[in-house]
Amino acid sequence: SLDEAREFLSRAGVEPRDILRMRMASLKEQIARQQKLYAQLASVDSRLADRPSVSAEEFLKIMGAITMSEKYFTPDQLAELEERKQTVGEDRIRAVEEEWPRLIAQVKALMDAGEDPASETVRPLARRWVELVNEFTGGNPEIHATLARMYKEEQNIGGMDIAERQAMSDYIHRANQAACDSA
Question: What are the tens digits of pLDDT across the range 63-95?
């Protein structure tokens, strides 16, 4: 404000250009935040483009997932994931989004039944789990590490109970480890 500028100018050693540079830096930060918000909204719009209607709950889940992603993934990682999304296409993304709940249910059922993760019943599910994660990350170990950190630090992602999901991930890890040990 003008009053703040007047106060700064009254201090020893403060020049008008100092105030101008501070204001420019502030505007630059505001522009960056606005561009980030625009990118978020454009991403939501893209996700909703093929859906005739979306419930408020589904809309909030999508917005939450975007916000969560931006909390953990670097801008470069987000750009790589966006490029990957364009490469694999919406049809493949939808197919994977539909496959995950089935795979999770199968793994959960085997865990609840006390099935040994080293069993031949669990191993194909464990391989598929890893394939789907690798398909998302594009095999990028940095993106994989960020994804793992997000799942380790958050309790709920997109309405999903992460504690239960973490137990499944540990189960899958043990299954894959058993497969490696026996190879």
Answer: 777 777 778 888 888 888 888 888 888 788 889
